[in-house]
Automatic annotation (TrEMBL):
Its EC number is 2.7.1.40. Residues 256-367 form the Pyruvate kinase C-terminal domain. Keywords: ATP-binding, Glycolysis, Kinase, Magnesium, Metal-binding, Nucleotide-binding, Pyruvate, Transferase. Belongs to the pyruvate kinase family. Residues 3-226 form the Pyruvate kinase barrel domain. This is Pyruvate kinase. Its cofactor is K(+).
C-alpha cells in the first residue's frame, strides 16, 4: 500500500496494544516525530510534532519504557530459517535489550543444527545499560547509531561509541560502527567534511569494521560510496598509533602472549603475526591490540575462516587439515611472500598453542626469519 501526507503504512502488529496516549513515534532515525493522540484496532492517530519527508523502508522507533514486544517475532523466525538455509556467515540481531535476547536467538540457531555467530546491534537504551552482559554472550557488536541516537540523547553518541568500542576490544569481540556515516552521498557527489571526520574518528576509536547503509542500499552510485569510505579509512589508518590499546594487567597467559607477539612487531620490526586457530580466539586477541602488520590466521574451520573477516587486520587462510606447527609456519611464509607482505630476511612472529590444535591453549610465541 502507498502512503501519502496523511497516512503511513507500517508493520507494527503487536505494538498498538502497548501504545499510550502521548507516546512518541519516531520515523527515519528521528527525523520525523509523531505524538499518539488515539488508537484503534489496526491504526494509530497521531499529531505531527516534527514533520519531514520519509520514504519506504525507514525505521520506526518508539522510545517508551512500557512497550511489551517480543524481540524475536514470527517473521524473524522465518527470516532466520531462510538465512541459515542459505549459508549466512553471521546473524545480526536488532533491538537487543538483554543478554537473554541473544541466548534465545542462539537457541533457535542451535535447533536448526547450526552454530552461526550472532552480532548484537546496540540501538536501545536498555542495551547500553546491560552492555557487559550482552557482550559476554554475543560474538560481535554493531553500534547502530541511527536508532541509538533517538533512544538516548544525541549528544551522548560520540562518548558511548568510544566506550562500547573499547569494551568490545577488551573482550576480544569484533565491533562494527554503522549508520549515517556518509549519508550526504544520497544527494551530493562528495561527503561533508564532518562525515569525513566521523569516519576517520570511528577508525581511530578502534572499530574493527565500518558499515554503510543507505549509502549503498538506495544511493544512485553505491560503488562510489564504498570507494570514498575506503579512501578515508586508509588515510586514518596511517595514524594507527593513536588507537588506544585495551590491555589490562591480569594473570592471563593468553593475553600476555598476544601482547608479547604485538611487542615483537614493534621492537623487532616483524612483518607479520602467524597463528593457527581452531576457534579464532587467538587471532581476535592479537587483533584487539591493532598491530601495524597483518595477522595470518590459519584454520581448518570454514566458519571460523568466514567470521574472522570481521576482525581488524586478520587475513584468514583456510587449509583442509592442520597437522603441526611446522606446516603452519611454511604456509604462512608462502602466503606472505605470494601476497608481497614480506620477503626473505624479514622477521615474523608465530603464536599458538601446545598441544597443537587444542582450543584455548595459546602458550607459545616465537620469532623466525623468512
Amino acid at each position: 500500500m502507498i502512503g501519502n501526507d496523511e497516512i503511513v503504512y507500517a508493520s507494527i502488529e503487536g505494538i498498538i496494544d502497548s501504545l499510550r496516549i502521548g507516546d512518541r513515534i519516531l520515523l527515519a532515525d528521528g527525523s520525523v516525530e509523531l505524538i499518539v493522540k488515539d488508537k484503534r484496532a489496526k491504526e494509530v492517530i497521531t499529531r505531527v510534532r516534527i514533520g519531514g519527508v520519509i520514504s519506504e523502508g525507514k525505521g520506526v522507533n518508539i522510545p517508551s519504557e512500557h512497550l511489551d514486544i517480543e524481540v524475536i517475532t514470527e517473521k524473524d523466525k522465518k527470516d532466520l530459517a531462510f538465512a541459515l538455509r542459505n549459508g549466512a556467515d553471521a546473524i545480526a540481531m536488532s533491538f537487543v535489550r538483554y543478554s537473554e535476547d541473544i541466548l534465545k536467538l542462539k537457541e533457535l540457531i542451535e535447533k536448526e543444527g547450526k552454530t552461526v555467530p550472532v552480532i548484537a546491534k546496540i540501538e536501545r537504551k536498555e542495551a547500553i545499560e546491560n552492555f557487559e552482559e550482552i557482550l559476554s554472550v554475543c560474538d560481535g557488536i554493531m553500534i547502530a547509531r541511527g536508532d541509538l541516537g533517538v533512544e538516548i540523547p544525541f549528544q551522548k553518541i560520540p562518548v558511548v561509541q568510544k566506550k562500547l568500542i573499547y569494551m568490545s576490544r577488551q573482550s576480544y569481540k569484533p565491533v562494527i560502527t554503522a549508520t549515517q556515516m556518509l549519508k550526504s552521498l544520497l544527494e551530493n557527489p562528495l561527503p561533508t567534511r564532518a562525515e569525513i571526520t566521523d569516519v576517520a574518528n570511528a577508525v581511530l576509536d578502534g572499530s574493527d569494521a565500518l558499515m554503510l547503509s543507505e549509502e549503498t542500499a538506495v544511493a544512485s552510485n553505491p560503488v562510489k560510496s564504498v570507494e570514498i569510505m575506503v579512501k578515508i579509512i586508509k588515510e586514518a589508518e596511517k595514524l594507527r598509533e593513536e588507537i588506544p590499546i585495551p590491555f589490562k594487567a591480569k594473570k592471563d597467559v593468553e593475553c600476555e602472549i598476544a601482547h608479547a607477539a604485538f611487542k615483537f612487531t614493534i621492537t623487532l620490526g616483524a612483518k607479520a603475526i602467524i597463528t593457527p586457530t581452531s576457534s579464532g580466539a587467538t587471532a581476535r586477541r592479537v587483533s584487539s591490540l591493532r598491530p601495524h602488520v597483518p595477522i595470518l590466521a590459519i584454520t581448518e574451520n570454514m566458519q571460523v575462516y568466514n567470521f574472522l573477516n570481521f576482525s581488524f587486520g586478520v587475513h584468514p587462510v583456510f587449509v583442509e587439515k592442520l597437522n603441526d606447527l611446522n606446516q603452519v609456519v611454511m604456509l604462512g611464509k608462502k602466503y606472505l611472500k605470494e601476497k608481497k607482505l614480506a620477503r626473505d630476511g624479514d622477521y615474523i612472529v608465530i603464536t599458538g598453542g601446545f598441544p597443537f590444535g587444542k582450543p584455548g591453549t595459546t602458550n607459545l610465541v616465537k620469532v623466525e626469519k623468512i
